[in-house]
Design a protein that fits this description.
Residues 1-37 form the signal peptide. Belongs to the short-chain dehydrogenases/reductases (SDR) family. The protein is mostly helical. It has one domain (14-42, 58-103). Helices cover 47% and strands 0% of the residues. The protein contains 2 helices and no strands. The chain has helices spanning 14-39, 81-103.
């Protein structure tokens, strides 16, 4: 949590890029095709376990409306490092929920 301010090479806030975008890309590009292929060849469905932290518990400290999608491609100084971390963890949880709805 916290860390140095900055952005990824793609322009995302470093917290969001590290905690969410990298994992989401690996899941979409590498793991989902493997899981779908495996699911068609075995009787027991494959599973995905998604881990997070209690960081989402600070969501009440986020700006009104929750995740500030409009500023994820920057590292705005007006958001504290805790808020940036909270957004990245909350997005992970929402992503896992959406993944479950789509593939279960």
């Amino acid at each position: 949590m916290g860390g140095h301010p900055g952005t990824t090479l793609q322009g995302y806030d470093i917290q969001f890029g590290t905690n969410h975008m990298g994992h989401a890309l690996l899941l979409l590009e590498l793991l989902i095709p493997l899981l779908l292929g495996t699911a068609s060849n075995i009787s027991s469905p494959p599973r995905v376990i998604s881990l997070s932290s209690n960081g989402h518990g600070h969501a009440a400290a986020l700006p009104p409306g929750g995740i500030a999608f409009s500023i994820l491609k920057s590292s705005p100084p007006e958001l504290s490092s805790v808020n940036k971390y909270t957004q990245s963890i909350l997005v992970n949880i929402l992503y896992a929920l959406q993944y479950a709805l789509q593939y279960l």
